[in-house]
Amino acid sequence: MLIVLFLLALVFFCLCYKVYGGFLSRVFNLDKNRKTPAESMYDGVDYCPAHPAVLLGHHFSSIAGAGPIVGPITAALWFGWLPAYIWCLIGSAFFGGPHDAGSLIASIRHKGLSMGEVIRGWIGERGRFLFLCFTVVTLILIVAVFLQLAADTLAGDPTVAFAASLYMGLALVFGVLVYRYQASLKLTTLILLPIIFGACWFAREFPGVTAPFTYSSETWRWILVGYIVLASLLPVWLLLQPRDYLASYFLYFAVIIGAVGMLFGSGSFEVTLPALRGVVAASPPAAADQYIWPILFVTVACGAISGFHSMVGSGTTSKQLRRETDSLSIGYGSMLLEGMVAVIALGTIMISGLEAKGSPVAIFANGFGQFCSLVGIDAALGTSMGALAINSFILTTLDTATRLTRYQIQEFSGQRIDKYSATLIAVAASLLLLLSKSGDQTIMSFIWPVFGSANQLVAALALLGVAVWVRKGLGKDNKFLMLPMWFMLVTTIAALAMLIRDQLRATPTNYVVIVISIVLMALAVLMVREALAALRAAPKDLRPSAAD
Fold this sequence. Notes:
This protein is mainly alpha-helical. The chain contains 20 helices and two strands. The chain is 73% helix and 1% strand. Strand 1 (437-438) and strand 2 form a beta hairpin. The termini are far apart.
């Protein structure tokens, strides 16, 4: 069963890249000779051309995070593996793929600015304001959530803390060697990667080296605060590009080991998870009456489509793209690759079954350890390596999200807030969420239920912004964007409505969740109205040209 599902996904994604990717290339009229913002606006800090392999590593590792692992595993436990598997394939190819590629390409045609600025040009100032309200709040939530996840992961396993700290330091060395001393990218990679990959083994063989990295979650949180402040402000060539490039090899390693497990594990592992568990969520902690629609499509998130991807594509990636034609492999290709990660994550829960213990992250790490045993790697070591891979996903999302929040705050203020102040505002707001409490519960426990819906609403609105640009700016048919946009919009609003229903039934009623959910729905409806009005209106002379 595992081998069939893996090969089916592989063939499907390859065909989609060839056929649908070619369609996207023609619609957006990609031209390798057209200058990108990384060249025309080079500043050596944010705008900096990157080798396609380096940029693919940054983009892929940033968008992956823990989403394609946590979401599919959770959905499979609730509804069975088959619905999650089908949505990961269809969603990645025809929803997340055009969303990611479209937002990246729209950004490079608009001076590497965020989707908020693209929306201002084609929908209007009110549309930009509404969209930035979503993105700033969502990014602050992402920084807060991943800051705590990273701190918990580092505190939970000193081996992972040692290895993660090592490759963050080596990333700085990599950046200096490659960009300042013009060292060979291949040679530097060949030297540093074995050191990084051997760190887990070394720490297990010589546990004394982990002693300086044994801290509480709270201490790691403050260490990471300092790290993300630096990550937001340092030139991208010094930390962001090399760290994400090196971290991407953990992703590739995870994909390769996962592929081995899916291809050759059928004879060693039994699939015990049911294919379909019904149309109502069957496992805790899902609330009562959580139906497969809309909950499945909000829960899977990054495994199929995620609004955060549009923020990465139009935030950091577009400022580093060396050739316009690279946007297809980096934008669309990365989403398909993330779909494969989601399929592999489903494989780990399929062999673990309903008896699986721990969080989705722990389930994935344990399943990854079992897959590693097929190639002669000790299962315990493989589990640590799986945990390190997940930690690298989390850290790349964390530092990229911090930088993106800084960009969004600066754009929201019309560049009146400098990058130092914007970074401090972003980090302080995230810390406030983590440290604030209401009774015995943190504020984060109140906001978490709407976080997934907010992220998916950003995806719907980003699709809408790209769709308006394609129709008004490029003069092309935008149905391939509008259809997934309407589906995600209606689905997410339905999920928010069900969340409001559940909170009204709960005792005590959580009015914070209710108010936030209503505000999100109202903002989404208002922006859709602005976009539809822009589509009906005649073009304005001051709007950017299609080639800008």
